[in-house]
Fold this sequence. Notes:
By secondary structure, this protein is α/β, with parallel strands linked by helices. The protein is built from eight helices and five strands; from the N terminus they run H-H-H-E-E-E-H-E-H-E-H-H-H. It has a five-stranded mixed β-sheet with strand order 3-2-1-4-5, sandwiched between helices. The two termini are about 15 Å apart. InterPro entries: DDE_dom, Integrase_cat-core, IS_Transposase, RNaseH-like_sf, RNaseH_sf, Transpos_IS6.
Amino acid sequence: MVTMVNFKGAHYPKSVILFAVFFYLRYPVSYRDLEEIMQERGVGVDHATLNRWVIKYSPLIAARAQVKKRPTAISWRMDETYIKVRGKWMYHYRAVDRNGQTLDFMLSERRNKAAVRRFFRRAIGNNGVPDRIVIDKSGANLAGLEAVNVILKFTGTGQTIKILQVKYLNNILEQDHRFIKRITGRMLDFKAFHSASATLEAIETAHMIRKKQFGANGITAFQQFAQLAA
Length: 230
């Protein structure tokens, strides 16, 4: 069970915090840009506080999004993109279904079998066992998924996943990476792994709202984001 997002003790109204966090995640702005935007709306808050809000509340809202998102297809596409943290490139693993709906995501310092296995165990835990997964030609991705299949074979129903290494089938995911890169492009270089991971989780959540994965018709994207924090 995912608990409610607790704003107790915050020195600003919940609505102000959520607006600032959503605006940062949805649009390519820096914290200093956002500080100026908030001042234009009559809210005096510095960029360091805005950063703390994003890091504190983003993972909680992202966890609720995983529970509340609409069912996804059992044919998956998986790949990784690159995010710079402390001046080093790290790996943001991502998976969508055949329709482009976001399944899961995970930032990793390494691109190896253990990281891939950890990502798939998380994705399966959140979404169930897929029928098939399309990956690229990466040996690490193949080895990690084969390791997951070994575990599946000897546990539960014994169901295993069909693995396809067909590059053109992953085009939908390559296109989907662009939104994430557009938002992170203005963030320059993340200073710490935990802040990068927290921020990426919430950027992904904002992207899921954009893709209408919560079935909320007739309300704005911000209202959907606020509902996830309710």
